[in-house]
Description:
Blueprint: H1 2-27, H2 32-35, H3 40-47, E1 50-55, H4 70-76, E2 84-86, E3 98-100, E4 103-108, E5 114-119, H5 133-144, H6 153-156, E6 160-167, E7 170-175, H7 182-186, H8 196-202, E8 216-222, E9 226-231, E10 252-257, H9 264-269, E11 275-276, H10 281-288, E12 293-299, E13 305-309, H11 319-327, H12 331-339, H13 368-377, E14 390-391, E15 394-395, E16 397-402, H14 408-420, E17 425-430, H15 433-442, E18 447-450, H16 459-464, H17 478-489, H18 493-510, E19 513-517, E20 520-526, E21 529-530, E22 547-548
Parallel strand pairs: 1-10, 1-11, 16-17
Antiparallel strand pairs: 2-3, 4-5, 5-7, 6-7, 8-9, 9-10, 11-20, 12-20, 13-18, 13-19, 14-15, 21-22
Amino acid sequence: xxxxxxxxxxxxxxxxxxxxxxxxxxxxxxxxxxxxxxxxxxxxxxxxxxxxxxxxxxxxxxxxxxxxxxxxxxxxxxxxxxxxxxxxxxxxxxxxxxxxxxxxxxxxxxxxxxxxxxxxxxxxxxxxxxxxxxxxxxxxxxxxxxxxxxxxxxxxxxxxxxxxxxxxxxxxxxxxxxxxxxxxxxxxxxxxxxxxxxxxxxxxxxxxxxxxxxxxxxxxxxxxxxxxxxxxxxxxxxxxxxxxxxxxxxxxxxxxxxxxxxxxxxxxxxxxxxxxxxxxxxxxxxxxxxxxxxxxxxxxxxxxxxxxxxxxxxxxxxxxxxxxxxxxxxxxxxxxxxxxxxxxxxxxxxxxxxxxxxxxxxxxxxxxxxxxxxxxxxxxxxxxxxxxxxxxxxxxxxxxxxxxxxxxxxxxxxxxxxxxxxxxxxxxxxxxxxxxxxxxxxxxxxxxxxxxxxxxxxxxxxxxxxxxxxxxxxxxxxxxxxxxxxxxxxxxxxxxxxxxxxxxxxxxxxxxxxxxxxxxxxxxxxxxxxxxxxxxxxxxxxxxxxxxx
Length: 549
């Protein structure tokens, strides 16, 4: 994964820097200014460093137990700790990719229905409340409470039935059925541990008064303007994936909102912000040529940017037409034109950065002549010479749903032009998110765009199982359903990866989507920002290790 390579480069540079300083110290052991270079945290303590971080979306709510946006996790990952963390190291041997957090160890029963967690005994919330098993139960009970109306966290818990406190620092989770993705859910900020005292005190207004156990404490949130967090000086229980123990280096981080993509590079150049994600590719290339900025491209695990085909809406109920669309799509050109050289062309439903990704047995190629053959064999012929194929008096016309995120308008227009070359007419409807969701609910579309982050391959269940409300392909295939159900139950990691390889092969076979590109978050920082890395879910920065050089 590219993010790991970037991390290793940062570590190599830091190791080299420390080696040079050590050599100087050997010659001049009384040189105090040089000694300070060995401890970025000391510099932060003395200067009160503040980092300004740009957010690209102003979310409608930022309570991690309630709301669902990725944007809330960018600041709040530093406010909360989770029971466990997903390792940054790439898993290649089928081993479980998790490391301890607030839980020191965990045990899963043979039937997969009971998860026992032993907890750290040295942790306090930012308000002084003790972290213990009762706190874990209070958090998970809140998420499962229907009145919380959780938009994401409750789904990460799957079939969790109850939480039992079996000791002051031991908690047991009881499931209705086996659910292998549970560990990944518990490693996400949406299930971060909040102070039970604060939850009780603030109730529905908790999002403005959040209290966690992370390396930074929540200070202030002004919607559509800024969110501020400050270093928690008593922090001593960081997970092993952090580069240093103890408190964070930075004293303060202020997050500001930059929803307009065109304004992000301008804010960087003006010095209004030091870190900005989702910088447009052309702006990224321009900034990278200067000596003021560095680019940290982060590959996002989960579903590739794709267009799912509605198999219940003719003519896409015909496999031949779906396959022809795929063959008529020049994905390499689309990615190059819209995203430059920053995004790999997608090869299936999961990105290569996703645990459990399996490449297609045969690469998807651009074969317009083969697309023409399939369409003709299916009876779609241009009988009146207008350039659009027809059958039984009906033109071959498709409805594409587009939205404004992810450069979808540009991608949709290129698809429209490419498919016109093989005689397919398209109409593009650019909708708001609520409008697109309503169209999806009604099935009023042929092609629907999708890109959703997620480090666990169970994300396939959400978008391809016949019982999932988010199944935009509307395919009901018994074999695919069985594989996706089995993937949720497989206790053995190696067996689980094999199951998901089979599921991805089946999705290819059924021709349910047109994969476009693997999402890469183009983060640009000023040169003084050092030590920035992102967690295994791709979007969330590990600010504990960041310092300003």
